[in-house]
Amino acid sequence: MAASYERNVARSPRADLTAALKRHFGFDAFRPGQEAIVSDILDGRDVLAIMPTGGGKSLCFQLPAVLRGGLTIVVSPLIALMQDQVRLLEEQGIEATYINSSLHPREIAARIAAACSGQYKLLYLAPERLLQGDFLRSALPMMAETPGIRAIVIDEAHCVSEWGHDFRPEYRQLADVRRRHPSIPLLAFTATATARVRQDIMRQLALRDPAVHIASFNRPNLFYSVRPKTKRTYQELLARCKASSGSGIVYCLSRKRVDELAQSLRTDGVAALPYHAGLTSDERRDNQEAFINDDARVIVATIAFGMGINKPDVRWVVHYDLPRTLESYYQESGRAGRDGDEAECVLYFGAGDIRTAEFLIQQKIDPATQEPLEDEQRIARQQLRDVLSYAETTECRRAVQLAYFGETFTPPCNACDNCTTVRRTEDRTIEAQQFLSCIARLAQRGERFGVSYVIDILRGSQSQRVIDNGHASLSVYGIGKHWRAVEWRALARTLIHRGDVRQSEDGYGVLSLNEKSWEILRGTRGVEVTSTSERQDRGELRSTQEGAAGPIDRELFDALRAVRKRLAVEHGVPPYVIFHDATLKQIAERKPTTHEAFSTISGVGATKLARYADAFIDAIRKARDGAAS
How, if at all, do strands 511-512 and 343-349 pair? Predict the structure, then answer.
């Protein structure tokens, strides 16, 4: 049986793959990294692919599924993700379906029977459904025999790891599928995974000699900024909503904040809706559909919203509260600009966010014993340190983000607040020497601590812990009283970012000296930091209205959007499923009036050409005739 899964499709020549890409999906060329992944999948290999949000990871397994016989099973964690992907595939003329709890048992049975008879190329399932006893023991073996399962895709594979930003225990059990069907290739895909998470994914899923593909995490079309949380924060958010004609997402930590913000925005004339786990499933569905269908421009949500949502024209994402992890921030902010046009990602940060985060960490307790879950708390504290490191840095934000994922980036990026503002640098060599000296004094006693404790010593804290440890007797005790804790913390973050001091990644975040540290202590290397007090205020919204396509005929573009909305209503799909904004902009720019010319537009495949070209060509001709008269 194993032979049926190995090299089931010969590796296609490059021209053939590109032609298939255009025919089925409408794209003229692969995005970076896609073609190599497609080739490895067609060769029957296990695959681990890390591609950023908007990088086109779904196409990497969808195209091979179309090109070969049999069935590809896709494990997805959310109902919305499945439905969104299936709608997109159906609009491309590709046979696909999903099975989840939203369906009646009779419909589920009918779809399973259809899958077993070879009616689908792709079948989307939740991990719980795949692992369900009857499905695992009966339906899955039947599909494996006829029509034959060509691959099992684990989408959002970071969910398998406790070090990932959305750990789900049921994902750990997916290795049982590998044990039962060892010949079926496993394909793990995710948008975010550190080196630690990547290793965990491969181990937990028992991947065999996988082809590992790691695309660049850099999203050059996204502008990143961090704003202070003040009394004017809501007014800034309101101005952003009103200045942009595109869609936006606001993330908050609490349901209460979500409801309050959504109500305030509606009162002030913004079409905004809430989304959180406290709403009924019908309310969540309706609000999400309104946002996806462009009936609401803004969604205010907890982190319960967004994973797998493929709305490509989100022009901005605001985090009103501190995100839980840097990985989740990258994932959530990455829902902006999936179409490649410019978009903005803003994080509001205040001291109160730290207290809230620490409180939430303390709530990680065993419900049976009420004892702290120490491992989970340790991991959460390390993740909080990473987020604070990003929020407080005066270095290039893109460089900090990419370094977290093990990628090197040389500033300036010219697309973050730190790289585009005029600031003053100050010599902080003396303070850096004081900070490092404290670490050295502790090391002499065989002791290591984290940033907060070192700052307590420098500022002469009289906490019981400092007194009991005898650290009030250190020569560095109290020498840093001239600085506030927030200033010391900013310096510490800078030293860590630059590699001037080492911080452990075991969850404890203890500090130790390295060669660069000693160069500073010896005076052979200085430390200059950017003065945060000199940073220019940047509350205005960046212009993202034209996007990557440049100036367009705005009147024609609006007419094309109206046609798209009408077609979307007629076909019962979101507008972007018809065509992305980027495709409409290209149509508005080129003004094709024949099927041949229309087929050259990026995003127009054979099925969409036949279904929709005439409606858009008619709109172009009407606009042309109107201009002529």
Answer: unpaired
Phi/psi at 215 (5° precision): -80, 165
Q: Rounded CA gap, 444 and 446, in Å?
A: 5
**Is CATH 3.40.50.300 the classification given to domain 222-420?**
yes
Q: At a CB cut-off of 8 Å and minimum separation 6, what does 440 contact?
A: 513, 521
Q: Where in the chain is the domain with CATH 3.40.50.300?
A: 2-214, 222-420
State how far the alpha carbon of 503 is from the alpha carbons of 299, 381, 389, 476, 512, in Å: 38, 13, 12, 20, 7
Distance (Å, rounded) from C-alpha 627 to C-alpha 362? Answer: 65
Residues 6+ apart with CB under 8 A from 422: 534, 536
Taking residue 209's Cβ as centre, other Cβ atoms within 10 Å add up to 8
Q: What is the mean pLDDT of the chain?
A: 87
Residue 612 has pLDDT above 50, yes or no: yes
The H or E element containing residue 525 is none
Superfamily of domain 551-628: HRDC domain (1.10.150.80)
The angle formed by the CA atoms of residues 278, 280 and 282, to the nearest 5 degrees, is: 145
CB 361 within 8 A of CB 377: yes
Distance CA 423, CA 434 (A): 25
Distance from C-alpha of 340 to C-alpha of 346, rounded to nearest angstrom? 18
Compute CA distances 253 → 301, 338, 527, 539, whole Å.
Answer: 8, 24, 36, 22
CATH 1.10.10.10 applies to domain 425-531: yes
Q: Is this model's pTM higher than 0.90 or not?
A: no
